[in-house]
């Protein structure tokens, strides 16, 4: 446990920007893996099976990760596997994108979710048990306002490829309007420098589920003449519902569930 807290604080000290490529952190993580790799050994479910269940949307409506999986999920997120799993998703998305012939009207859009898709909140979640603690909107909003979230490196690569192929990018996020300037500055700062739209939730909109909210926003895009050819997110609620897009791509996220 002590070693783990040491790891978490090392991550914070590194201020997130370089975390994904920090060999010190990666090497320490690998030392832990043989002992905690599948999070099994205790009573009941292995953490690897639990992760499979949540990534496939078989396990739904969960509010926190099992307490015994904190170390497993932390290792997964900070280690090499999260990166590798993301790379596979991005590679498929890129292959699909390059197989398309864009229409000439300039209305072909690719939707990007923000949290755990375009930007990583790992520095925040490392301080909050990688999803063991219940979600706290107040402290999470404070984190957003720091504008310190790093880019997910693979997603940023896809973004740049899509821009050069001629796609329009629409960021569609459940973040609230009151965080708009912080969110936009953070996006620009880490390399997402252009977009067609950044769609955020109205501050007063607290009722609809994310699935309903995102469906309504996409429906409006289609009504406005856009063609949603691709859509990438870390939650199934980003990718299900109305007008999800011709193809959807699911990034890993074993830390939280949004309906
Ligand atoms: C794209 O255009 C090329 C050349 O016109 C054509 O051979 C190909 O089948 C088209 N691909 C799709 C997916 O429409
Ligand atoms: C949520 O975060 C705020 C701000 O950091 C904190 O004051 C509050 O105690 C937290 N609430 C819970 C239930 O932990
Ligand atoms: C996307 O799907 C729509 C509706 O099914 C279809 O008309 C369109 O040709 C598709 N576009 C691409 C790029 O596959
Ligand atoms: Mg997300």
TrEMBL record:
It comes from Morus notabilis. Belongs to the APS1/VSP family. It comes from the Eukaryota. The lineage of its organism: Eukaryota, Viridiplantae, Streptophyta, Embryophyta, Tracheophyta. SUPFAM superfamilies: HAD-like. May function as somatic storage protein during early seedling development. One of its GO terms (molecular function) is nutrient reservoir activity. This is Stem 28 kDa glycoprotein. It holds the Pfam family Acid_phosphat_B. Residues 1-18 form the signal peptide. Keywords: Glycoprotein, Signal, Storage protein.
């Amino acid at each position: 446990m002590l070693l783990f807290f040491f790891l978490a604080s090392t991550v914070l000290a590194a201020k997130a920007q370089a975390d994904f490529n920090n060999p010190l952190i990666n090497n320490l993580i690998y030392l832990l893996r043989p002992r905690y790799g599948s999070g099994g050994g205790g009573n009941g479910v292995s953490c690897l099976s639990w992760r499979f269940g949540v990534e496939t949307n078989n396990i739904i409506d969960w509010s926190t990760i099992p307490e015994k999986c904190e170390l497993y999920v932390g290792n997964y997120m900070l280690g090499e596997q999260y990166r590798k799993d993301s790379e596979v998703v991005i590679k498929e998305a890129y292959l699909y994108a390059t197989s398309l012939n864009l229409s000439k009207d300039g209305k072909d859009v690719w939707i990007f979710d923000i949290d755990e898709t375009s930007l990583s909140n790992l520095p925040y979640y490392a301080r909050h048990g990688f999803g063991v603690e219940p979600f706290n909107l107040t402290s999470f909003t404070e984190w957003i306002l720091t504008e310190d979230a790093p880019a997910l490196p693979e997603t940023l690569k896809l973004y740049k490829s899509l821009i050069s192929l001629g796609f329009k990018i629409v960021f569609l996020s459940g973040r609230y309007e009151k965080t708009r300037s912080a969110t936009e500055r953070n996006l620009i700062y880490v390399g997402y420098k252009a977009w067609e739209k950044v769609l955020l939730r109205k501050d007063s909109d607290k009722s609809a589920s994310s699935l309903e909210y995102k469906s309504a926003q996409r429906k409006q895009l289609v009504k406005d003449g856009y063609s949603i050819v691709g859509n990438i997110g870390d939650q199934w609620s980003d990718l299900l519902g109305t007008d999800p897009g011709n193809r959807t791509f699911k990034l890993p996220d074993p830390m939280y569930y949004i309906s």
